[in-house]
Amino acid sequence: MTRRLWAGATVGATALALVLAASLAPAAAASPDRGLAWLLVIGSSVHVASTGWLFAVPSVRIHAHRHPRRYLLAPTALVMAGALTTVSLPPATVRWLLLPWLGWQLLHFQWQNLGLTALAHGALTPGDRRSITLAGAAGTAGALAEPRLLQLDVPLHLGLVHAGAGIVFAVVVVRALRTARDPVHVQSLLFFTPVFLLHSPYAAVGSLTIAHGLQYLLLAGLVGAGPRPQPHVVALSATGALLAGIALNAASHLHDSGPTGRLLYGAGLGAVMAHLVVDAGLWRQSRAFPRQLLRERVPWLAPTLEPCVTS
């Protein structure tokens, strides 16, 4: 695979996710059909679980062993904190706490887009970074202002905030598109458009979840497989990610169950947070190890940034 082919596959996967989610989205009170439900499982839970695939890479295990606070202690603490929070607090309080949790997730979506744009083009200018970040912040604010888009049952409706975020998003995107560098850059700027144009939660935010997950699975799969893929290792890792993802998805539906179910639900929330923390260490290209990892596993995609002394 070449950089251009990877970029095309990334943009294609994102566009496909947005189109499929919008076309398959059910009516407001209905459940998704089996096809859309599986897309959501893959884009959310399986992509989270696939972080474990990266630990099949020897250099990742060595790096994690050298930094146990980020890769062992913090994930363990987050899973435990999530479980204890959901089992000890009233469900109504937990729903309110999910607002900032979901905001963190949505911002993570755009941080990934920022990284993908840098990989597709090389070093970004401060203006490029600012516009992509602002577009993501506006999209996140727009989604949080309308919790129904997040399928979150809290009595909050901030229509003016949603509209204002939409205006900011449009201004930032229109200005930035004039100097957009490539299709991945354009995709990153437009990523949160469904939040402001679509009304179904599955179309507006579900589409972003699927797109984000497919982007991640493509890149993580390439890194996990490496330059000389071993079919049995790839098959075992993919199967493990699928099974763990199915388990995470099952836990995500236990929020209204008994104490044991809520404990598992909270542990699942903690696992998602652990995924975000681990990703921040393995993918941030301003650090030495993530650049080294790409040079080792996908040299044709390795960034051209100057090396730094910290990892």
What does this structure look like?
The chain has 311 residues and is mainly alpha-helical. It has one domain. Helix 7 runs parallel beside helix 9. The two termini are 28 Å apart.
Terminus-to-terminus distance: 28 Å
- In the residues, how many domains can be counted? 1
- Regions with pLDDT < 50 over 5+ consecutive residues? 305-311
Q: List how many beta strands DSSP finds.
A: 0
Mean pLDDT: 92
H/E element order? HHHHHHHHHHHHHHH
> Rough shape?
globular
Q: In DSSP terms, counting alpha (H) and pi (I) runs of 4 or more, how many helices?
A: 15
Task: Describe the structure concisely.
By secondary structure, the chain is an all-alpha fold. The protein has one domain.
Break the fold down into its secondary structure elements and pairings.
Blueprint: H1 3-24, H2 34-49, H3 51-54, H4 58-66, H5 68-88, H6 91-121, H7 126-145, H8 159-177, H9 183-190, H10 193-197, H11 201-204, H12 206-225, H13 231-251, H14 259-283, H15 288-297
List key phrases describing it.
disordered C terminus, 76% helix, 311 residues, single chain, mainly alpha, 15 helices
